[in-house]
Amino acid sequence: METDPYQREYDFAVKVARKAGEVIREAGEREIKVSTKSSAVDLVTRTDERVERIIIDTLKEEFGADTHCFIGEESVAKGIPCVLTDKPTWIIDPVDGTTNFVHGFPFVAVSIAFAVNKELVFGVVYSCLEDKMYKARKGKGAFCNDEALEVSDVKDIHKSIIISEHGTDRSKEKVTKIFSTMQKILCIPVHGLRGSGTAATNMCLVASGAVEAFFEIGIHCWDIAAGAVIVQEAGGVLLDVSGGQFDLMSRRMICANNDDIARRIIKEIEIFPVVRDDASP
Predict the structure, then answer these.
(1) Which residue ranges of the chain lie beneath pLDDT 50?
(2) Spatial distance between the Cα atoms of 112 and 107, rounded to a whole number of angstroms
(3) What does pTM read for this prediction?
(4) By the 8 A CB rule, do 62 and 8 touch?
């Protein structure tokens, strides 16, 4: 009887993430050809597509395409359904922080998560320009470059730093709600508001204790799946922005070092509708 299930998958995911990060760093030294996805600020590069192909092809070769499923940002953008089943499933963001990558802003991450029976088992986030490998397995703790992670022990919201992003949707109604929320949170007051430009990295900053919370509406499952495991294993909490249970496919989430800070922030969030990742086309 196997005493440590999915150890092989976990170790392999770390290797694949590092390999992908090397490809990204090399690409950053060359000319980047950029096209757009849903809007002028939702950028996609050849690197995104190449890295996703490398990751998925490598995983298929190692574990097989018949028994494992794959959800990848670029695959979904091309029309492949975003469906999470009970089968072992890899959830992949090849380049989280594409806009950062294009502009040379130094926060770009490879995010790889693994789910079984619709439950997240492990997550790997490689912040490749920083050379920081964040990783966690359910029930096994969270680590950065093999050093254990623990969320901040700050309990006073007024002494906290909060991370959020403004997303890629530039509709006036949504932008107004996003910045109204940020203004209300800033005026609680808190120590500050930040944003790295990558959801995966933001979640790892919560896990490492550098900030107290991160929230966003409009993110995708591939942005946050790996980070969700890392935050929880570092002692943090995950909730829906309404205060309900975290739902990977809902495209809305808050993670924090503790429940009190999460719920204090939730009071200020102006929620707007987004289409679920698993909604039928």
Answers:
(1) 1
(2) 16
(3) 0.95
(4) no
